[in-house]
Amino acid sequence: MAPSADGVLGEFADAQVYSITTSGGPLPSNMEVRLRFIYDGDCARLYTGESTDRLSIAADHFFNGHYMEFPLTREGWGMNASDSFTLRILPLAKNAAAGSPFPWGPVLFQQPPAFNASGVAIGLRSVEAVHVVKLTLIAQA
């Protein structure tokens, strides 16, 4: 799905909304920090701050049983105490689960979502800060 027009969320207006704030200071140059989101739902969008502008979409993810990751320390992003994000998750109906008929075939999830009694999967299971150490490897012949 393409991002909606500036300031208009489209179907994401009815999404479940989570506010995320990071805290921390400068990191060593060989350290990368990623936010890892484990969620249930059809898809998720991460916006910078509280904005709903399409230019503020930092990442989006279609649920496939894997987590969504966003690199905080990629070029242009500096982790500091004032970083805040808004995560919006759309619900996934049980009839869209593995084996359901779609024009392009069945949907096969790596890890099935958790459906509630109403047959809907939606929610944020966890948010983690994952630290990755970057190494430079030199191969010589």
Descriptive keywords:
141 residues; mainly beta; Jelly Rolls; 4-stranded antiparallel β-sheet; 9 strands; 0% helix
CATH architecture: Sandwich
**Count, helices:** 0
Q: From the alpha-carbon coordinates, what is the Rg to the nearest angstrom?
A: 17 Å
Alpha-carbon distance between the two ends? 47 Å
- CATH topological fold name: Jelly Rolls
What's the SSE pattern? EEEEEEEEE
Oligomer: single chain
- Helical fraction: under 10%
* Proportion of residues in β-strands: 35-45%
Silhouette: globular
Uncertain parts = none
Mean of residue pLDDT values: 78
Number of strand elements = 9
Q: What's the CATH class, please?
A: Mainly Beta
Could you describe the largest sheet, including whether it forms a barrel? 4 strands, antiparallel
Which strand order do you get reading across the main beta sheet?
A: 1-6-3-4
Number of domains: 1
Counting helices, strands and paired strands, the structural category is mainly beta
